[in-house]
TrEMBL record:
Organism, scientific name: Frankliniella fusca
Gene Ontology molecular functions: symporter activity
Protein name: Sodium-coupled monocarboxylate transporter 2
Record-annotated membrane-spanning stretches: 33-55, 76-94, 106-131, 152-171, 186-208, 215-239, 262-281, 302-327, 362-386, 406-425, 431-450, 462-481, 528-549
GO biological process: sodium ion transport
A Pfam family recorded for this sequence: SSF
InterPro entries membership: Na/Glc_symporter_sf, Na/solute_symporter, Sodium:Solute_Symporter_SSF
Lineage, uppermost ranks: Eukaryota, Metazoa, Ecdysozoa, Arthropoda, Hexapoda
Amino acid sequence: MNTTTVAPLGATLAASSASTPTLREGNELLFHWADYLVLALTLAISLLIGLYYGCFGSKQKTDLEYLLANRQMKTIPVAISLIAGFISGITLLGTPADIYSYGTQYYAIVFGIFLMAFAISYLYIPVFVNLHVRSSFEYLHVRFGDRAVRTLSAVIFLLDAILTIPLYAYVPCLALEQVTGYPRNWIALIVMIVTVTYTTLGGLKAVIWTDAIQMVIFCLPLIIIAALGTISVGGWHVVWEEAAKGGRLEFFNMSLNPLERTSFLAAVIGGFFYWTGYNAVNQTCVQRYLSVPTLRAARTTAYIFMVGVALIVTFCTYIGLVMFAYFRDCDPLQGKLVATSDQIVPLFVMRIEKGLYGLPGLFMAGVLSAALSSISVALNSSAGVVLDDLWRPFAKKELTQLQGAVFAKVTCVVLGALCTGMTMAMSGLQYMIQVAMTLIGIAAGTQFGITSLGMFNPWANWKGALAGGFTSLIIMGWISVGNEIMSVQGRINYPTLPVKVSGCDPPLQATASPTMDPTVLPIYRLSFLYVAMFGWLIVMVVGSVVSFLTGATDPDKADPDAHTPLVASWLRRRQARRKESRMASTERLDLDRVSVGTISLNPLNLKQA
């Protein structure tokens, strides 16, 4: 689910950071030595891959190899890396819990994912490939001809990454603390040291190949959990029947209200803008699309990514329904078995895999692997952005390829150390999590909007791009911060679907779900699914208006390759017609001159003169 669940996840994680009980069965911790072994092997494999590429392979001697693998990566591993990088521990823990609490309407986001794959394949990726740029921010420099737009977008991305990485690390550490009893700070330290080490040493090649292995590790437990859970409740038909009786099956809520938490249109349209924004222009994705040798390979990568993400979201949705069937008579939250909704999945796993030593560890290894892949991708991309977009444009002396590789590695270590400290600080700063989630949501729509403005509007100039970007940051910041403040105050609550507690021991009486405060400004209640879309829309509108007011770019002088293929085709036809028109005018002028000269040299005219 990543940051698509900004509103509910921010509050949930914040509540978790204050107090997280360890899951126990009697007086015994639920983790067995076999589970620890599985976790240790997961970390060891990732570390060994980094050591191989850093010390025994090509040793990443150039920054092109370190950051783009010399643009020679194969399609399948890159596609798997994309899937692994965008399916974080937040997805594996958050999506089933969301389905458990609010039903299946969120699943309609898979339609947005399908649309996303075609959009990025034919509208965005061709531009980056044809221009041979190394980052989405270098494209902005080429398109607008000004460093300010490139720098603004690069800084937004870097801040986004610095805030995202601690969240990716914090979620599995929180879950591991529940099942092991060890302090989350020590777990976070170990996880971050391993991730930073293999990312720094191995570069993009290590990131991609560890992602491929880690994806297997986190997909396998999904399948096992879905199967064991289905068996434990009596079969898939029981899962479906209980979900229907509990009101969890909702797919076509066609509400047009943007304030409603989830609807079909919000999931499809909002999901499309969220996923397209991150996969079309976010450097963590663009970097990997550019690591394959051809445009065709990049498109194939996008399609495989689409199918893989859709399958994982499907499995997570089904697990959410299985959990509801399993806990149909005793809701873990109201039964005080867990403190927050993000703890329901670990509890469910421990219950259904009780006695199957190693399987709980395999599931937690899956959650950990999802986090490792997301962290390593963000670190590697951030190092490249610092080098290519924040250092080289301003440096007086150009770095050699070897110096660039060393610079990127040092940057990776520094960013890793910073994010490690922030991850450990999250345990004591409850609202730091909510602030981070808010800023991440704001950044997504703004970055997407600035790049789309350049690709789709040939009249846009750098002043419009800057004005649109800053306006989006301010307005979406105001809305998102207002939403978080209202949520902290308990004034924004989305009622969950009904649950039962009659089967709890001892039996309990269900409490009413909190309701929404009607006095809250409607703009603060904007669905989290629409955040990226509104940010994009603000940039497009403001950027276009300001561009025309400050002197729009002349389409006849625009570079067609810097625009999306549809616009590029129009520009080429327009420029060709203008060129033909100018040539025709020149020919007519030449003919007129020749005619005048012929008349003046006519013997009759000379005789008359």
